[in-house]
Amino acid sequence: MSSSGEFEERSTPATTSASAGERRGEPYGADVKAQLHHRVPDLGALELLLAVARHGSLGAAAREVGITQPAASSRIRSMERQLGVALVDRSPRGSRLTDAGALVTDWARRIVEAAEAFDAGAQALRGRRDSRLRVAASMTIAEYLLPGWLIALRAERPDTAVSLQAGNSAVVAERLLANEADIGFVEGLAVPDGLDGVVVAHDRLAVVAAPTHPWARRRGPLDPAELAATPLVLRERGSGTRQVLDAALSAHGGLAQPLLELASTTAVKAAAVSGAGPAVLSELAIAEELASRRLVAIPVGGVQLRRDLRAVWPAGHRPTGPARDLLSLTRARPTG
Q1: Is 86 exposed, middle or buried (0-12, 13-18, 19+ CB in 10 A)?
Q2: Tell me: the pLDDT tens digits for 149-178?
Q3: Which of 213, 308, 312, 290 is nearest to 259 (CA)?
Q4: Alpha-carbon gap, residue 186 to 3, rounded angstroms
């Protein structure tokens, strides 16, 4: 009974510890495995040991792995201390593996081969990821900025196939959150919910009208309240242009019922050029029409129509591969 009682007392802490590990969701023995990297040499040291075995010379092994001979000697000594056995006999005639060193070398070869297989598999995964890039962008960015960015990307990544989906800012956010795009570009006031982002460019909205419209003959700036009260040719709700305009005129009575509500910048521009009514468009989209006098810019006083253009991606998932490279290119080419 006494010996049994002693056995139970000695066993209880181990049983309790294992149960605690299980309660934390850790596999039995996780605490032992967690220390493995402290007891097993790193790949660089194992590759050096294999080179010593091939050449029979510490100096030649050091040259093969690209380090100095003193550094190689230090690394071998460190590995011997870590393992607690002598691995290499050094002499004026060269370096020879001890019996323990030969055994460790066999194990090292298997580890290095497994690491090489792991690396090859990881490269294959990266290659598959890097073979395509899915971009979603709001209409203005898709039409007037992305073509230049994608041409620059193709020069850096000629083998990456790029697909572009254009829509308003709300649609871009939906595609990113549904994993239907790798990176997105939006206009608007803020980063959409569920996404992270960074400003890559700036833009300004302009009030424009055909030369025949009465506003084209105004001598002074348009009052924000008059702009808000006038039915305009506008982009649909959910677009970055509409968000910025809604916010800018909210203190002036809010937007009147639109004269026309269209789903693309090109359609809004065409309606304004035809004389359907005044419109609000990105300055990026109307440079040619202003230069040819098919549209006239109408100054507006007392209201801020500047906006940020952002690259966005799912929160917590910073872009990698081609998406990361595209992001770098956009930030290297600021606009506005």
Answers
A1: middle
A2: 999 999 998 988 999 999 999 999 999 999
A3: 213
A4: 74
User: Which two structure tokens, joined as six digits, stand for 108?
Assistant: 């090292």
Total count of domains within the chain: 3
More confident residue, 3 or 157: 157
For residues 137 and 142, give the distance between their C-alpha atoms in angstroms, rounded to a whole number: 5
Among 12-16, 170-174, 204-208, which is the least confidently predicted range? 12-16
Task: Give yes or no: residues 240 and 117 share one domain.
Answer: no
Q: What per-residue confidence (pLDDT) applies to 34?
A: 53
Question: Alpha-carbon distance 35 to 27, whole Å?
Answer: 14
- Joined together, the tokens standing for residue 235 give 């982009």
Residue 222 to residue 225: CA distance in whole angstroms: 9
pTM, full prediction: 0.61
Domain that includes residue 333, residue range: 131-336
Contacts by 323-327 with C-beta closer than 8 Å and gap 24+?
A: 323/133, 323/182, 323/183, 325/153, 325/156, 325/157, 326/133, 326/135, 326/149, 326/150, 326/153, 326/183, 327/183, 327/198, 327/200
Same domain, 221 and 301: yes
- Indicate if 68 and 10 belong to the same structural domain: no
Distance between CA atoms of 113 and 124, rounded to whole angstroms?
A: 17
The residue behind tokens 């697909």 is: 163
Task: Give the three-class secondary structure for 166.
Answer: strand
**Shortest CA distance to 165 belongs to which of 136, 185, 139?**
136
From 87, 96, 97, select the one nearest 41 (Cα to Cα): 87
Report the DSSP beta bridge partners of residue 234.
Answer: 261
